[in-house]
Amino acid sequence: MASLIACPHCGPRPKEEFTVKGDAAIARPAADAGEDAWYAYVYLRDNPRGRHKEYWHHTSGCRRWLVVERDTVTHVVYAVLDASAQGETA
After folding, report:
1. Are 8 and 80 in contact (CB under 8 A)?
2. Whole-structure pTM over 0.85, yes or no?
3. CB atoms near residue 2 (< 10 Å)
């Protein structure tokens, strides 16, 4: 059986309709931040184990940005929220 993601706009949809876009916990540096801060923001990423929030894009559906909280080991999805409702943007 295909894994379903509960899109808050479209309802349960196959995971293949979504694109994972990265860590939702990383804060964007200020525009005048130094080169090191921007390098770390763009290129350096942790590979967390366990429960984690990520930006997902509903590419083949409503095309909205979502924040998906899932376990990176078991792939269990705990929550799916609209990124704009969280005050977050990708």
Report:
1. yes
2. no
3. 7
Residues 26, 41: contact at Cβ < 8 Å? yes
Q: Which domains does the chain have, with CATH numbers?
A: 4-25+33-86 (3.30.2270.10)
Q: What is the pLDDT along the chain (90 residues), one digit of tens a residue?
A: 468 999 999 999 999 999 999 899 888 999 999 999 999 999 998 888 999 999 999 999 999 999 999 999 999 999 999 999 866 554
Tokens describing residue 86? 């969280």
Chain Cα centroid distance, residue 85: 14
In 3D space, the residue among 62, 53, 61 whose CA is nearest the CA of residue 21 turns out to be 53
Q: Facing residues of 23 across strands?
A: 54
